[in-house]
Amino acid sequence: MALIAYDSVDAAAFHATRHLRDDDLATWRTAISRHFEARPGMRLLDLGCGTGSWAHAFRTWWPEIGVVAVDPSAAMRERAVFQPVVPGAADDMPLRDGSLDGVWLSTVIHHVADLAAAAREIRRVLKPGAPVLIRSAFAGRHEAISLFHWFPEAVAVLDRYPSIADVEAAFATAGFTVTGCEPVPQVTAPSIADAAAGLRREAHTPLQLISDEAYAAGVARLNDAARTPSGPVVDALDLLVLR
Predict the structure, then answer these.
(1) Mind giving me the DSSP string for the chain?
(2) Rounded CA gap, 17 and 194, in Å?
(3) pLDDT of amino acid 53
(4) Of 243 and 3, which is predicted with more confidence?
């Protein structure tokens, strides 16, 4: 999978368009809580936190726990709505051995060049039995994501992402096993018109990696769909859990 080193333009687009509204996070809080029981004194890492929306949500939901945020991109760290965010990567984290009660990765796994190395580093910093919670679109699982309806050429990019089986195999080398996997619905936009108005190519890896012609064709499809009144745009990403 081609990696994107997020610059200031990408970070600004991500900040402007990729943060879910607080009300639309409820399904994710419920799903996460099935696998991570927050208790006072626990520490949860948001790995590859980007502009910090998930770290901010965790601090809001569970003020009794410590939330740690790490991201390799200076541009993302500078725009984060959560502070502090420390520099680090999935295979090189500035954290002590066995110091975390959970690790969260949201739409990050396709940017990790060496999944096995990341799994070893995550194993190092986690306490025994603590969960790894991966929120992602995975190869072969595009049907529930509206972006791919309007930009079908981007399915080929998604198919270069790790599959669930790929992640399971890589993490198995560090002693992890899959303990849960479920699609989690979310309201991505209040309507198709809102989705069209808020679209930023720089905020979506699959859209950055298709041709300009394919992108223009997808924008035309999206704008055409936006002319018809609609309800909310509901997508589903997967929550993969390993211990």
Answers:
(1) -------HHHHHHHHHHSPPPGGGGHHHHHHHHTT----TT-EEEEET-TTSHHHHHHHHH-TTSEEEEEES-HHHHHH-SSS--EE-BTTB-S--TT-BSEEEEES-GGG-S-HHHHHHHHHHHBPTT--EEEEE--TT--TT-THHHH-GGGHHHHTTSPPHHHHHHHHHTTT--EEEEEEEEEEEESSHHHHHHH--GGG-HHHHTS-HHHHHHHHHHHHHHHTS----EEEEEEEEEE-
(2) 11
(3) 93
(4) 243
86-87 vs 66-71, strand pairing mode? parallel
Q: CA-CA distances (angstroms) from residue 125 to 51, 57, 138, 220? A: 22, 22, 25, 46
Spatial distance between the Cα atoms of 9 and 108, rounded to a whole number of angstroms: 18
> Residue 199 and residue 202: Cα distance in Å, rounded?
9
Q: How far is CA 4 from CA 96, 112, 134, in A?
A: 28, 10, 19
Alpha carbon distance 68, 229 (integer Å): 41
- 126 beta partners: 100
Comparing CA positions, the residue from 242, 30, 25, 48 lying closest to residue 133 is 242
Q: Give pTM, 2 decimals.
A: 0.92
pLDDT level of residue 88 (50, 70, 90 thresholds): very high
DSSP 104-131: EEES-GGG-S-HHHHHHHHHHHBPTT--
